[in-house]
Specification:
alpha+beta, Beta-Lactamase, 2 domains, chromophore
Length: about 325
């Protein structure tokens, strides 16, 4: 905990690497790794330490189905889960017939793991495991969480909702039992780690908000002094306002494009589509033009996927574009 507290702020990866190192040394497992959930619920190994001779998992992605929602719900209730030996036979538990309600073992460390998970462990050459949940405040690392919304929440003194940010996972190639005091220490370490993760996201949001406000001020000054062309021809420009790969301005029926954007002909098709299907709104924001129903989405190729469009007037618009999230991802289990 002292090592975590001594780390300088502003480096989340260093924080994650440090907690993985601490868990590796504390528990004595053959492998320790940090597993982060992405927005679409798939997971990625973002930090790892192993004993010599083990296959590395660092950088591998795993589909959301590997840890379904039911399992994530259990991690929110029981934040440390230990499997001593995946080959051990489970013991049956019989409930007294006099009990009026069924007992649940969701919060019990004695609950037997699912047979599918045991087979999954065996396929990974892992006989024993220790899994610790990292639970943070809802929305701390989301870009669309504004300062106003967070301030209103604080003023109303509403308790922040929690969510499962990721897992710290330990594997062992032989059976291994961790006594309760050590498991309790690991759970406390995860609580401290989660607090620091929250602080990192809060700092990142504050820096981002300051940059956005500064850019907004400069762009507004340009609009006051010049025609709207200044926000695409000068620096900073509209690409500095939103995290994007390209942007465009439609002004007086002409396009000014920056970065990766559709062609002018494709953009005119987008404008026609917006006028037909989204005329009543002030704009549109979508992660996928294809999912949003744009007929020409496939012709855009890999260069453009998501788009945000805002109307300045009835005929003038601003556009921001994003490419696909990743061109290539290493999936766990793929050969």
């Amino acid at each position: 905990i002292a090592r975590l507290q001594a780390l300088p702020s502003g480096n989340l990866q260093k924080l994650v690497d440090t907690v993985v190192q601490e868990v590796f040394e504390l528990t004595g497992y053959d492998r320790a790794m940090a597993y982060k959930f992405h927005d679409d619920d798939h997971g990625e190994v973002i930090s790892e330490i192993t004993k010599p001779g083990l296959e590395p998992y660092l950088g591998l992605h795993y589909p959301a189905t590997d840890i379904p929602q039911a399992a994530r719900f259990l991690f929110m209730k029981n934040k440390v889960r230990m499997i001593c030996d995946c080959h051990a036979k489970p013991m049956k538990v019989f409930q007294d017939g006099k009990l009026a309600l069924d007992l649940t073992l969701c919060g019990s460390t004695l609950r037997a793991p699912h047979s599918c998970h045991l087979q999954y462990m065996e396929n990974m050459d892992s006989i024993a495991s220790l899994v610790m949940a990292v639970v943070i405040n809802e929305g701390e690392d989301e870009d669309d969480s504004s300062a106003v919304e967070r301030q209103q929440q604080q003023q109303q003194q509403q308790p922040k909702r929690k969510r499962l940010w990721g897992l710290v996972v330990c594997h062992n190639t032989t059976p291994r039992f961790v006594p309760f005091p050590l498991r309790y220490a690991c759970e406390f370490l995860m609580q401290v780690f989660a607090i620091h993760v929250n602080k990192e996201f809060e700092l990142e949001n504050q820096i981002q908000e300051k940059n956005i406000l500064r850019t907004q001020t400069l762009l507004c000054d340009m609009l006051m002094r010049d025609a709207p062309l200044g926000i695409v021809t000068q620096s900073p420009n509209i690409m500095d306002l939103v995290k994007c790969d390209g942007a465009a301005l439609l002004y007086n029926n002409k396009f000014w494009r920056l970065g990766l954007t559709p062609t002018e002909a494709q953009m005119r098709d987008i404008v026609v589509w917006l006028a037909e299907y989204h005329m009543d709104s002030t704009g549109l924001s979508t992660d996928s033009l294809y999912d949003a129903g744009f007929p020409g989405a496939l012709s855009l190729g890999d260069a453009v996927c998501g788009m945000a469009a805002v109307r300045i007037t009835s005929k003038d618009m601003l556009f921001w574009f994003r490419t696909h999230t990743a061109a290539e991802v290493r999936w766990g289990g793929a050969k």
